[in-house]
Amino acid sequence: MTRPLRVDFHTHIISEDYPDLAEKYNDDRFPKLEKTCSCGAEIKIQGKTFRKITDQAWDPEKRIEDMDKEGVDIQVLSPIPVTFTYWSDSQAGLELAKSQNDFIASVVKKYPDRFIGMGTVPLQDIKQAIAEMERAVHVLGLKGIQIGSNVNGLNLDDESLYPFFKAAAEMNVPLFVHPWATLGKERLQRFNTMYTVGMPSETALAAGSIIMSGMLDKLPNLRICFAHGGGSLPYILPRMDKGWEVWPHTRNTENPPSFYAKILYYDSLVYDPDNLKFMIEKFGAKQIIAGSDYPFLLREIPAGKVIDLHEDISKEEARLMLGQNALDFLGLNELVKT
After folding, report:
1. Closest residue by Cα to residue 309 from 272, 270, 268
2. Can you name the CATH fold of 7-11+61-329?
3. Residue ranges of the domains in the chain?
4. Per the database record, which ranges form the Amidohydrolase-related domain (predicted)?
5. Has this prediction a pTM greater than 0.70?
């Protein structure tokens, strides 16, 4: 029997020709890509280095080389979250979203057997976001949309955002929620705790907001996956259930939070097989999707390593998490290999 298909659901990509909106709009809050050599660059914001990256971040052939080395059959491409720029003017946000979506679609078109694309939308303008989601999916052929964990400080359950989620459900477009603009960022300046503590907390807040809002009762077909194993969500669910029980005046749902948590999806980027085991117990193996955070420093190598290291799961559970679940989530069952 051949090995199971391995899909890396959580990867990020940026165009080598990323548009310089900082100069165009005279606003240095826009991320700016500055090449440092043929194989490296820096993403800068307000003149300061936000992140150093290599050509892995933009060169599909370099990515394929790494995929072949690590046994990854397919990568799902999505933008780097700092480029969401929901704070910007809606027209500038739309321009940036279109540029990124066009780029991702071009990579998928050139290498259709190795890449699947997810796009981005300007959530600061819901009408434009829905229109760009429709273009990204129906014109460009992207298979989902990545969104941030909040929109200018608004949690994802804010009523102003509901039409977007309703449109995604009606259009059958899956959503990938990635943390960004983390809560309490003024307290996360040391030790890179924005990444290690802030992002898991931010993700749990985003997931909790959706779970407790009643959105999943209203939109039962909505498919949402949360990055980084749902952050701290799996571990605080009993507390959320207890709150639902003792404060009935806060309830917007027919069932406790843990019921809805089993409807959502999560990537497997938790590093520790014991954490993965806990997630499987909480959510079930069918809700977990292998993802690495390629090409950044915190990535797992290879994608799905934590699944490989888990000694107490069946071959079928491993097959699901390593590839099948990603394809199910994205509506691409035709890509299944035996």
Report:
1. 272
2. TIM Barrel (3.20.20)
3. 7-11+61-329, 17-57
4. 7-332
5. yes
Radius of gyration of the chain, Cα coordinates, nearest whole angstrom? 19
Residue 142 phi, psi dihedral angles, 5° rounding: -70, 155
Please name the amino acid found at residue 196.
T
**10-residue mean pLDDT series, the chain (338 residues):** 89 97 96 95 96 97 98 98 96 98 98 98 98 98 98 98 98 98 91 94 98 97 98 97 96 97 98 97 97 97 97 95 98 65
Whether 112 and 332 have beta carbons less than 8 Å apart is answered as no
CB within 8 A of 29, min separation 6: which ones?
22, 45, 46, 85, 87, 88
**Amino acid identity of 117?**
G
Nearest to 179 by CA among 209, 158, 159: 209
DSSP string for 75-98 = EEEE--GGGG-TTS-HHHHHHHHH
What's the rounded Cα separation, in Å, for the pair 89 and 73?
A: 38
DSSP annotation string for 124-167: TSHHHHHHHHHIIIIIS----EEEESEETTEETT-GGGHHHHHH
Q: By three-state DSSP, how is residue 42 classified? A: strand
Q: Is 255 exposed, middle or buried (0-12, 13-18, 19+ CB in 10 A)?
A: middle
The residue whose two tokens read 């780029």 is 103
H or E stretch including 51? strand 48-54
In DSSP notation, 298-315 reads: T--SSTTHHHHH-SSS-H
- Output the CA angle 203-194-18, nearest 5 degrees: 85
Contact 110, 63 (CB under 8 A): no
Q: Compute the distance between CA of residue 71 and CA of residue 209 in angstroms, rounded to an integer.
A: 36
Q: Token pair 């804010």 is at which residue?
A: 158
Strand 48-54 relative to strand 224-226, pairing? unpaired
Q: Find, among 46, 48, 47, 53, the residue nearest to 15 by Cα.
A: 53
Of 131, 63, 69, nearest to 97 by C-alpha is 131
